[in-house]
Amino acid sequence: MSTSIVIADDHPLMLRGLSDFLSSKGYSILGKAEDGQSAYNLIIKHKPDIAILDIRMPYLTGLEVAEQCQKHKLDTRVILITFDNEEALFDKAKEFNVYGYILKEFAIEEIEICIDHVTKKEKYFSEEIASYLNSKIKYSNAHIKELLTKTELKIVKQLSKNKSNQEIANTLQSSIRTIEKHRSNIVKKLKLQKSHNALMLWANLNKDLF
């Protein structure tokens, strides 16, 4: 029997794209909604295996729907899709027993892997945020200055402003290869995953440290 799913997103194109993609893969789409309250009503009505919800929606957010599901002990497992990489949202997602958390730019690439995990009652989070969720290491300002060299600190500061390797190389009057080498060293020192965006995400989450 195929996995039953309810999908909610207030962006019609995203909603249709995800629905069409999952239908083509053989999943059973029981309902679609463009706001959180409608999504919650569909969950109550159809009791799907999985609900794939946008975090930011009218009436109820994806997190609020997840909270209601947890509060009323519903069996539906929630997967959140979002553009947000805010620390507080990750913590809320874990608090409300969310099973999956995917960044929207990777939704189509990762959704099947995520559903496969969630169907087996295994939690799945986008690689870009997994390093934060799985090893939530809190650094102090002093610790970071001790851990990273002055050049590495400059690079992390530039990354927190979403600068590319080329822009950082220009600013620091260095080569791209040197910047890449520094980035690799920083990832090792911070014990981050080696995914492309992990360091930039970490820099954005920890702007107050440098």
Automatic annotation (TrEMBL):
GO molecular function: DNA binding
Superkingdom of source: Bacteria
Keywords carried by this UniProt record: DNA-binding, Phosphoprotein
SUPFAM superfamilies: C-terminal effector domain of the bipartite response regulators, CheY-like
Keyword DNA-binding attached: yes
The Response regulatory domain, residue ranges: 4-119
4-aspartylphosphate sites (modified residues): 54
Keyword Phosphoprotein (UniProt): yes
SMART domains: HTH_LUXR (SM00421), REC (SM00448)
GO biological process, one term: regulation of DNA-templated transcription
Domain (HTH luxR-type): residue spans on this chain: 141-207
PANTHER family the record matches: HTH-TYPE TRANSCRIPTIONAL REGULATOR YHJB-RELATED, NARL SUBFAMILY
Name of the protein described by the UniProt record: DNA-binding response regulator
Species for this entry: Lacinutrix venerupis
